[in-house]
Amino acid sequence: MSPHRTPDSSRRSDRSRRAIHEAALALVGEVGYARTTIEGIAARAGVGKQTIYRWWPSKAAVLLDAFLDMAARQAAEADASGGGGEGGIPDTGDLATDLKLVLRATVDELNDPATEAPTRALTAEGVVDPVLGAQFVESLLEPQLQLYVTRLRAGQESGEVRADVDPRVAVELLVAPLAHRWLLRTLPLTHAYADAVVDHALRGLSARG
Amino acid sequence: MSPHRTPDSSRRSDRSRRAIHEAALALVGEVGYARTTIEGIAARAGVGKQTIYRWWPSKAAVLLDAFLDMAARQAAEADASGGGGEGGIPDTGDLATDLKLVLRATVDELNDPATEAPTRALTAEGVVDPVLGAQFVESLLEPQLQLYVTRLRAGQESGEVRADVDPRVAVELLVAPLAHRWLLRTLPLTHAYADAVVDHALRGLSARG
User: Fold this and answer.
1) Interface with B, mutate which of A127, A152, A162, A198 (most B CBs under 10 A)
2) Cα→Cα distances B147→B85, B87, B134, B171, B203, Å
3) Is residue B145 classed as helix, strand or coil in its secondary structure?
4) Please, are residues B170 and B95 in contact by the beta-carbon 8 Å criterion?
5) A170 contacts in chain B (CB < 8 Å)
6) Do residues A99 and A198 make contact, with C-beta atoms less than 8 angstroms apart?
7) Which of A81, A155, A194, B117 has the least C-beta neighbours within 10 A?
8) pLDDT tens digit string along B132-189?
9) What's the rounded Cα separation, in Å, for the pair B136 and A124?
10) How many CB atoms lie under 10 A from the CB of residue A108?
11) Given an 8 Å threshold on Cβ–Cβ distance, is B128 in contact with A120?
């Protein structure tokens, strides 16, 4: 039994929100973002379209909220299983191993056919729409990047990471190559690639100094 | 006088193509990609819309061709001025300096308000449309990435770059952070950032080994 009793109306709202999220994700996967409409989402979720308009200004906002909800549930699951702490990056004292673990998991998430189409649609909308892009970064992307910053700072304290490295720049050397390969589909996004990015970023490219 | 005389009809075609490219780039900048139509491009370029449909299957294809034409002209200018050779990356023997030069220029290009909107529109289309994305990568992006591969290989031969570095992975550590910051607008894309990416990538993040 839940320690906090939720009033029925709030529980109904939660059920509706979840149904709307799932309908939006599924529709974008099936017919594409351009042909997904608020009407279509409402019909599939079994709610009136006014319910959607009351909570969200656009289909992009529904999609962003669906991903935020998914991220919150994943973090809660990680907490419940005791691993990683708030979805953070593990610190075994071996930075390369810890980074490869999380970046391989990122590869698997990006390649997951269940979420690939809506993730691509939301990212592409953010590329052309600065307001949505800012919401996407602030609420979803930057908090994830800060988990790497925290791990890299701990590495600086323990002497694993060079003291003169800017952790916020370093995180982009690790994450951006995977995002770039996935977004632009230049080459296959694999675990081997995640490992190679970590190895190259940690050791550096230069033969001198 | 041009050494190769172009027949009148071919010269007219070139003029029309250029006018269509410019109309497409300008329209996307002014009204956005979604509201740019083949009809609108034709009206602005002063051609019939059948002329456009004869050469291109979609507005995305017009846009891609406009960027290819721009890249070809930039490469021709670089050749004519004797610098860089085929738009390649200079090799002064100082890899950090050479990379900072070209990555700063990339920052300026990405931040150029004259091309930002169509570049974003084309990239976003490639994110959601695998066929267009593959054309974008094959014709425009990968040839640019290969210029970095060539410079990094030369660096391996001269002993500047570690022999165990995979140049095709290394190029993504250099280019992807800039693309990521620009596409997702996480933080400002500046010359100082380009320099920091080069320094972090060359030296590596690790304090050990």
Assistant:
1) A127
2) 11, 8, 19, 9, 21
3) helix
4) no
5) 200, 205
6) yes
7) A81
8) 999 999 999 999 999 999 999 999 999 999 999 999 999 999 999 999 999 999 999 9
9) 15
10) 12
11) yes
Q: In the prediction, which pLDDT does A84 show?
A: 47
- Mark yes or no for CB contact A184/B126 under 8 Å: yes
Q: Quick check: B160 and A208 CB within 8 A?
A: yes
In angstroms, rounded to a whole number, what is the distance separating the alpha carbons of residues A109 and A113? 9
Cβ-count burial of B81 within 10 angstroms (0-12 exposed, 13-18 middle, 19+ buried)? Answer: exposed
**CA of A17, closest CA in chain B: separation in Å?**
26
B71 φ/ψ angles, rounded to the nearest 5 degrees: -65, -40
Report residue A136 as tokens: 């996407």
The chain B residue lying nearest A132, using CA atoms, is B184
Q: What is the dihedral of CA B31, B32, B38, B44, to 10 degrees?
A: 40
Alpha carbon A21 to its chain centroid, in Å, reads: 15
Suggest the residue from B100, B119, B127, B175 to mutate for an interface test with chain A (most A CBs closer than 10 A).
Answer: B127
ipTM: 0.89
Enumerate domains of chain A plus CATH numbers.
88-203 (1.10.357.10)
Q: Could B200 and A32 be called an inter-chain contact, meaning their C-beta atoms sit closer than 8 Å?
A: no
How far apart are the CA of B37 and the nearest CA of chain A, in angstroms?
Answer: 15
For residue B1, the model assigns a pLDDT of 42
B176–chain A Cβ distance below 8 A for any pair? yes
Residue A189: closest C-alpha in chain B: B169
Percent of chain B having pLDDT more than 70? 92
- Is residue A37 helix, strand or coil? coil
| B172, HSE (Cβ side, Cα atoms, 13 Å) | 27
Q: How far apart are CA A101 and CA A84, in angstroms?
A: 11
Average pLDDT, chain B: 91
A36: its two tokens: 């997904």
* Cα–Cα distance for residue pair B32/B34, rounded to 1 Å: 6
Q: Distance (Å, rounded) from C-alpha A19 to C-alpha A139?
A: 21
**Cβ of A173 and B202 within 8 Å?**
no
A185/B160 Cβ within 8 A: no
CB nearest to B120's CB, from A127, A168, A197: A127
